[in-house]
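re: ur question from yesterday

yeah so i grabbed the chain u mentioned. its 255 aa long if i counted rite. heres the sequnce exactly as i have it in my notes:
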Amino acid sequence: MSASDPQLPGGGVGAGWRTVDVARAAGVSAQAVRLYAGYGVLGEVPRAANGYRAWTARHADLAVAYRALAAAYGGETARRVLRAVHAGELRSAFTAVDAAHAAWHAERQRLDRLERALAELADDDPGDAGAVAAAASEAAGTTMTVGEVADALGVRTSALRVWEGAGLLRPARDARTGHRRYSDADVRDARAVQLLRSTGAPLEAIRPVLDALRAHADVATLRAAVDRRRDVLDAVARARVAAIAQLHRVLPPTA
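ran it thru and got these structure tokens back, copy pasting raw so excuse formatting
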């Protein structure tokens, strides 16, 4: 969408812009235009002899750009970008855009890692953790010690205790000795934590995954949630492409 040079009611093309004209061209309310001006994203707005703001087609284009940038990047980033443009600090504007893209790309990578981990979790049932628990049941009853779980998974016992301290594992205590005893379900949880940690997932991000697995025992549901999040990222990426096109319209020409 371009707001440049519509036919205005006050006289020729692009002459006599009023606040309402800028608002109409940008698809926002007159109050929004005033708000944008207060944010400093429309640049300088000179006053006419009668004291009214002397708007131009460029202000309308800037309003369109701000609206698109705010929708795609959030208001804070949109304001930072356009203020930098008006200050002649294009590198700062580009840096803000790049930072937003980098964060979004990092989330895509996290989703990729999570999907791989969920695929492994799906394969683990009845895979590695199931086999470990079955072997333990045959050799030592129906539960395992922390050392046995650590050996089976190839992790340190200290890691299991850290995961327990974070609330991710909940092994029962032997009533007689007070030692931790890991059930088949506890071993599966430990294996899930191990896989998710291997993807770089922080401990606080693993809890909801485990809670969902415990509640639904359905990796497919979680994989569907990953796909839905990817759809959101794709929609935002499309909005950002459109916003960058609007930003390009209001950038000063290159030397």
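noticed a couple things. The first helix runs from residue 19 to 26. also Strands lie at 172-173, 180-181.
anyway ttyl
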